[in-house]
Structure formats: structure tokens, C-alpha cells
């Protein structure tokens, strides 16, 4: 049973390598790089949102001071 599963998986992997002209290790490496990039994009998005929020708060404070003394 396990040997049969292994053989089926190996045939499938060999077929995919031929179709894509890439070895499994290359595909795995690309996948890792994509996942890493997605994490970096999420971090950058969070930093951008936080920076924009700080800017909005700063502008609001200046506006509030201007209204109080205006």
C-alpha cells in the first residue's frame, strides 16, 4: 500500500517536472521565496497603514489647535 502510493506520487512528480521543465527542488525554492515575499508585503502594508494613521492624527491635532485659537 505505501509502496504503491510512493510509486504513484513519484510518477506524478516526474510528469510535473517534465511538463514544467523544472525540478521539484526549484519549485519548492520558488514557493519558499513567494511565501517569504508575501510575509514581507504584509509587514510593509502594516507599516504603511500605521504611518498613515500617525499622519492623520498629526493633521487632526493641528486642525484642532487652529480651531481652538482661531
In short:
This protein has about 70 residues and is mainly alpha-helical. The chain has helices at about 1-20, 25-70.
Write up what this structure looks like.
The protein is mostly helical. It has 2 helices and no strands.
- Treating each run of at least 4 consecutive H or I residues as one helix, how many helices? 2
End-to-end CA span: 83 Å
Mean pLDDT, nearest integer? 91
The H-and-E topology, N to C, reads as HH
Strand content: under 5%
The rough form would be described as rod-shaped
Instruction: Give the beta-strand count.
Output: 0
Main sheet record: none
Secondary structure: helix percent: over 70%
List the helices and strands and how they pair.
Elements: H1 2-20, H2 24-69
Summary keywords:
70 residues, mainly alpha, single chain
Amino acid at each position: 500500500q505505501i509502496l504503491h502510493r510512493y510509486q504513484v506520487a513519484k510518477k506524478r512528480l516526474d510528469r510535473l517536472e517534465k511538463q514544467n521543465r523544472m525540478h521539484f527542488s526549484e519549485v519548492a525554492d520558488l514557493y519558499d521565496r513567494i511565501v517569504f515575499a508575501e510575509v514581507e508585503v504584509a509587514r510593509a502594508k502594516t507599516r504603511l497603514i500605521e504611518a498613515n494613521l500617525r499622519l492623520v492624527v498629526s493633521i487632526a491635532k493641528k486642525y484642532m489647535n487652529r480651531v481652538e485659537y482661531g
